[in-house]
User: Fold these one by one.
Assistant:
Number 1:
Amino acid sequence: MSYYEKHVFFCTNQRDGGKACCGDRGSSAMRDYAKARTKALGIAGAGRVRVNNAGCMGRCEEGPVLVVYPEGTWYTYEDRDDIDEIIEEHLLNGRVVEALKI
Ligand code: FES
């Protein structure tokens, strides 16, 4: 059994030179928000949900991106509403958010 039921990785990579990167699209703030929300909902921790930073995951043009394991489901997002939907639907109810999936 996995140590975490769901492990969420937010790319927070910052690039120089004007290349597309998640760090320029608010990823750190959304990562912080997701961490705070999972804690507030009581689903953060061993056996439940973990939210982590990641470096570049190679899908920069589609970003900002996050990926949820163990499913390996990739999402993009724009704002807190999108993060709330991923938490509510995917992390709490196990349903993929097709509208945000990449
Ligand atoms: S900078 Fe986020 S996937 Fe490359």
Number 2:
Amino acid sequence: MSGNEAIAMAAYEAGVTVASGYPGTPSTEIMENLSKYEGVYTEWAPNEKVGLEVAIGASFAGARAFATMKHVGVNVAADPLFTVSYTGVRGGLVVLTADDPEMHSSQNEQDNRNYAYAAKLPMLEPSEPAEAKELLKDAFELSEKFDTPVLFRITTRVAHVKGVLSKGDMRKSSAVCGIEKAPAKIVMLPGNARNRRKIVEERMAQLTEVAESDTFNKVEPGDTKRGFITGGVAYLYVKEAFPEATVLKLGMSWPLPEKKIKAFAASVDELFVVEELDPFLEHHIKAMGVECHGKDLIPNQGELNTSIVRTAIDPDSAPVLFAPAELPMRPPNMCAGCPHRGVFYNLSKMKDIFVSGDIGCYTLGFLPPLSAMDSCVCMGASVTIAHGMAKALGDEGKGRLVSVIGDSTFVHTGINGLINSVYNDSRTVLVILDNRITAMTGQQNNPASGCNIKGEAANAIDLEALCRAVGVKHVETVNPHDIAECKKALQTALALDEMAVVISRAPCVLLPEIKNAPHNPYSTKTENCAGCMACVKLGCPAISWTNITSQEAVAKGYKEKQKGFAVINEVQCNGCGQCAALCKFEAINRKGE
Ligand code: SF4
Ligand code: SF4
């Protein structure tokens, strides 16, 4: 099982009955797998704040509740997270953060151990799937015993690595479901919150004593010449790089066991703290007055691996065996037949506009040859950044500011930005790229899809009606595969002196019903190709370009100055027709036409 599958099984065995999350790599498969277990209510939330609040509500009702998200999602959920630290829980509540060192699919590389410190919450951190399964079950018990939400941190490697594990015992919540009023505990007006503030400190002191126990933080004896303090996946790298060394493995990364750390430091000749990303442990260990090596040797950016750890600490003895394999680079690209391409192609042809982008597959519109995205900060920020620019630029920005957002991201946090733009009289154009799914994370449904987490029919948001309801007067829906129609809609919207919305609607080509449907691909009549490259500029991976010399051009019957010709790979082509609309030389036709 992968770490994510193990965590889903653990949540089930822990007696979780309500779970909510927002898809985000590397956490997505947890909710997908948990939704398959009987007796667990699961849902995709429109964003992480909503997901956490749903879990908090379930906990207040006495159920064991689970909220999952990726690291940047915790930023969205931070508001309720910091306050639920004060209210505590009834049924056990665990919040999972899946951090992404190396930014495999993220816009930043934050280290969410800092959230445990800042929000005054205990954090547990497994190193591999089997440990993740046991530790998650312990997390729910810790939550109920100490009346606290527990942060559970994994990283990309832990989420996706496979391990062998088996079914375990089923556990039960000590709470009983039902309505129980406890206003002094869960109504956080200042008088109550001040009282709870003291309780939070007392709780953290008690949890520090728990951290001193061997349950979560274990010493693995070995050669005491070098001692390592580590946790999470970095523990595995240390064990592989220095199998003979003594190790203090921290399964609880906050609060830290000061007595245990000091005793461990005194037992070794030289102390090394090995951790990915921030010097979180190192700073707190040094603040205890303990000398150690850490980020003076180990990189503070990107993922670690066995080779990096061994080379950083003992460069002369690092065996060749640890050298990482050199793999060819594979640049990301939107799929062949992706509906977003039609919108970005049109935007790339519009001069003097600024495209404020968002997070999703369509962020790839930034890459050449389209190069049609000028900023991308975080989910939902496309709309608000375009609005802010419009206010700063005044008349200079009129007809030049476009924001681009996906359907899922619009529902996540784009709606608020649109409301703000209408309310504050924005003169920008919002393009909602509605492909009916949360595509980049792997086809999860969202409130605009018409299906729930299990794929069953659900109420779907009417995006046109919603935009009109918040006050947008001009809302036009287009088929992005129709390049000319899409261009006209964008031009019309940009010419207006008011907030306008263009909804670009066509399904993602990876949806099973599209992927498995019979394809009617296009093919190139290379003898007609004039080498204009209009189709190549779409950036479709099904279209390749072959360079030729002037002699080869003449031999093929082309003009001498023709530099090459385009060829469509019919196996890859999804038959969207965008390239055919651009070819003025009848060199691209449906196969057989
Ligand atoms: S029709 Fe053209 S643009 Fe569309 S998938 Fe096929 S090759 Fe790509
Ligand atoms: S196939 Fe058509 S659009 Fe593509 S390069 Fe040749 S002539 Fe130009």
Number 3:
Amino acid sequence: MTVAWSSPPLPMPWYPARVEDAWLETRTARTVVLDVPGWPGHHAGQHVDVRLTADDGYTATRTYSVASAPETGRLVLTVQLVTEGEVSPWLVGEAREGDELEVRGPIGGWFRWDESMPEPVLLVAGGSGVVPLMAMVRHRSRVGATQPFHLVYSARTPDHVIYTNELFALARTSPGLRVDRLYTRGGLPDEAREPGRLRPEDLPAVDAFPAPPVVYVCGPSGFVEAAAGILIGKGHDSGAIRTERFGPSS
Ligand SMILES: Cc1cc2nc3c(=O)[nH]c(=O)nc-3n(C[C@H](O)[C@H](O)[C@H](O)COP(=O)(O)OP(=O)(O)OC[C@H]3O[C@@H](n4cnc5c(N)ncnc54)[C@H](O)[C@@H]3O)c2cc1C
């Protein structure tokens, strides 16, 4: 589908949303599917505000990237548990089919991809920063785009990789899609790379692509800063690097 590139109307309306389905992706990350009547659609990479309202009228609002490829009337989010948090424990541990909340958006004018962009794409994800990048991978597959897409995904351990089966499958069936995983705390027994934070050799140089890629980096602030520094050192133009930060630096 095509979604207009214009900004949403201001003030942005809140849409009532209903939990349609939910499942665990890892022990601490859960995908929540929302039915949102009137939802206008979104671009891959955009995010939404989610508002929860308690019985006494108390509200809490947080931001979540949309994990699904663009579609109308439906939103898929994937939420990583922040143990001491207010909203993520409810979305990961408590939200049930039929529960109601509100969403506002779509939000984000720069951190988005669609098939009108012909350049190769480099995606760099730290932890749950993979969510908006997965929307791009899913959208590329859905529209049959074939330019090189290279996802470098840093997770604590293999158990922390969100969308693991889908990523394995897509990397085998989508021409031009490459997925590299790296682990910061512990990998698989046959892993050649020593566990550890992102290193220069983990990211491809600009000349590894047939043309300079558009680069999307998403994750905790410290991860995003480290990745951007490495990318510039490997010849990527800072103007081609689009970043989104998810939480406190780590
Ligand atoms: C543009 C954008 C997109 C986002 N997309 C996603 C997404 O797709 N999936 C997702 O899981 N989260 C996403 N987030 C993060 C999300 O908005 C919340 O910050 C997160 O879910 C924590 O909310 P909470 O209410 O559980 O914790 P809070 O009650 O807000 O925080 C409680 C404590 O945890 C710390 N904390 C807050 N956030 C984090 C964090 N991410 N990591 C570690 N500690 C934290 C706080 O400093 C605080 O001390 C996104 C954030 C932004 C800005």
Number 4:
Amino acid sequence: MEKRKKRLSMKDQYRAMTRLGWETTYQDMDKVFPYDRFEGIKIHNWEAWEDPFRMTMDAYWKFQAEKDKKLYAIIDSFAQNNAQKNLTDASYLSALKLFLTGVSPAEYQAHRGFAHIARHFRGDGPRVACQMQAIDELRHIQTQVHTMSHYNRHFNGFSEFPHWHDRVWYLSVPKSFFDDARTAGPFEFIVAIGFSFEYVLTNLLFVPFMSGAAFNGEMATVSFGFSAQSDEARHMTLGLQAIKFMLEQDPDNVPIVQRWIDKWTWRGYRVLVLVAAMMDYMLPESPQSWKEAWELYFEQNTVGLFNDLAKYGIKVPDCVARIKAEKEHASHQVWMTFYTHGAATAMHTWIPDEKKQKWLSEKYPETFDKYYRPIYDHWKERAEKGERYYSQMLPHLCQVCQVPVLFTETETDEPMKLHQRQTVYKEERYHFCSDHCQHIFEHEPEKYVYAWMPVQQIFQGNCGGPTIPDVLNFYKIEDGKENRDYKGSEDEVAYNMM
Ligand SMILES: [Fe+2]
Ligand SMILES: [Fe+2]
Ligand SMILES: [Zn+2]
């Protein structure tokens, strides 16, 4: 009788199931992989980039299915037990609305972007890793939408989230971040999302939302957060590996990678200013201030990473000095912009109550009482007289990050003076929130002059008209339901009746 062949070892099995790349013969490799050369990154050996996940597709499905099963069991029991009653206050839901409108569609963009580079990298190791990450990101948006759909039955502000994401002025901040990354080449995309966002900044996005949810009695969000975070560990590994691979392949790659790290750390931070306002203002109970989170997750933890990259000649991005100077001010300035433009937001806004203001002055002893409390006092007086202030205009947006030009000269210690920059390009004037956005523009002006700027679009007559009712109509925001002050809102009434 013929002897049965020995089974393959685990390592060979894994290789046979994952390393499916080959050199093409009847088509030129450059035609099959047209995108991975034009950015100037030089690669000599794709084999050096191993798939960091070391998982077969088969194992991946089993593993992820297990996680989903657990998550959906929690979400079901949350809905059955009417756990929305356990919220500290329904004003908390503005934080969830910001997440669903701002972050969840970005997960989908990450899915599309990783699927794209999974096709276009020449090496088969990164291809399979990027493919898995693309599926992870799709799973993230699905679990988030399912989690939050429960609130849609009880509260306003959840139903039109994809429509809002593509149009509303402040949601163009995360949208333009991903549009920018996805219209770059594959190497810049992986630095932008895999490294700067996932590796350097992700903790500042997810941890505050998740711990904020836990502090405010919202366990469904905590569950999807944990479920997504367990994928993030893999994403971080891929991001770091991508950077090291580029840096090790050729010294000519170093300045290109440095420019991308500088650009995307800044772009990522500008998205995080929305999270800063969320942490300091939108959570009835805040576990941590924005400033504390920045100091812990960036100033302390990321130093080690940059020390590690120093041997390749990589330096800490210049923008870190600006972020440091802004950390005492950013959350206040962003929330005040939301408050004054609260007629055109897809969530409620409000003046922080006494308890919150006391907490803010403890967390920001240098700045809150001196600069910001007096403004809230003034607004409160007006609101009590029935004259709650709503701007009838939308704020001017930065051409690059699309955050309103709202920050002040914090680096030169003139916190009441507006910080803005301008560049004239082909006889048109462009506005920026900072030197860093201006530099990004000046490096690639042709890219950013085509940016879809929500406020400019309104003035150009592309959004149904220039007044607030016209704009709300275009946005599909129901006036008096989704926008304006939390006080007196249907959400507040619904919560109090529960
Ligand atoms: Fe994700
Ligand atoms: Fe991710
Ligand atoms: Zn900007």
